[in-house]
Design goal:
Blueprint: E1 18-26, E2 30-39, E3 42-52, E4 54-57, E5 60-66, H1 71-77
Length: about 80
Amino acid sequence: MMFLGPKAASPPKNTFGLVETKVVEFRRSSFDVQHRLTKDGALAVEGFETRVWVGRAEGEPETIKAKPVPREVVERLSGG
């Protein structure tokens, strides 16, 4: 997954106050990420994404395949 956005030489006039991103659910090979942007203390934008943990398929280096999310990653993204 990739995020593309503009680079501003100066801050835009409509800026958000707080940007909060957290993992809200883990599954075997994927997890859901929630994004919340507030302005003046009120929720302005909310978004979600599902990320899938992948690796090269054994014996097929040009193919990717879903893999279990490593325990260490779950612990770090859970705040543990």
